[in-house]
């Protein structure tokens, strides 16, 4: 599925964005008394998402009113709905629509992007009709940029939504290769036993029990400038290993490669916009399935990582940080200007902040401020949490350098982030995103299923961070 706007040369109907007043809608004067009387008769007051179709003299439709609620008060609080205009995309009759007015305080860019997001349907296994209402991109906006952001989001959603029967390590590699081919990137993949020769022992240990071989996928895009390296967790299914998950916890584990999906989605957007030419962009994905077999790694095993640090495995269900550690160690060897990891890593992050506000950890105040500000400004919120130094002792067991699953259950997202940070140090700045990668219930512009998180926050923060 490809995001697209309506052809601006086609005939279109006006869509009026209407504020809600104290007792009645605030209608633009050019609509006239007939439209005002009709809106009143229909009970239209401009509530968020409310729609009133305007009839023509011939009995057809000559436009529509769409409620956007009261004028916003000065506040830093986020709106309850990120993409309110997406409701119009879902509810309006088929055809091309154009935004007829520009109310003060309405984020038109976000509205147009939300409309594109609302067009998405995951129809690989079942025919699902997308909305038939198409938006003509407002003249003051840049359609190429909006489509690039939507394309990145679509890619991440597709990858996460696809079940592991069709999205194992083999297929995730093919998705990465397809992206590289679209945008002229170089690809290197290290498979199976070659991981041991190349010194990626923890990626090998986690994935060796699966039917499809574990691998490290390495994409490099042509460009000059600062080094940006994205590392995404690619656990295509997580049984929990020998510390097997209960069925209730295993049902969504096709999404455990959400970190990989998100870094590929971000790379897709950067490449479509040509921004990769102004940086040295690298994408690393350790792709595995955490399965159970005679050669599965075990609780109590001691693994020696690429960096030389030893890791005591106290829970085979804390495997994501193991595969990320080897990939991060490789990335850090080049001392990138910005190193990012994204992973569906801990349940503790969901308990702390819920499914739609992913925490991130960063060792640079300036970088963290840029990311969090961009996230809230562009309706892709993230929330900074600390690399809390006093908890370092929690990840240091008695017989190895590190513990992959500290006992006690406290501060699980922080201790996981501290674990990952041990495999960095040469990068100028490091940020780790503990995402959920899933929309648990349908919302405007965000259907239930796979979801991008943090991609647009990073996209808009990168110019400031890498300048």
Automatic annotation (TrEMBL):
Pfam families: Peptidase_M17, Peptidase_M17_N_1. CDD domains: Peptidase_M17. GO terms for molecular function: manganese ion binding; metalloaminopeptidase activity. PROSITE patterns: CYTOSOL_AP. The keyword Protease applies. Keywords: Aminopeptidase, Hydrolase, Manganese, Protease. Belongs to the peptidase M17 family. This is Leucyl aminopeptidase. It comes from Paracoccus kondratievae.
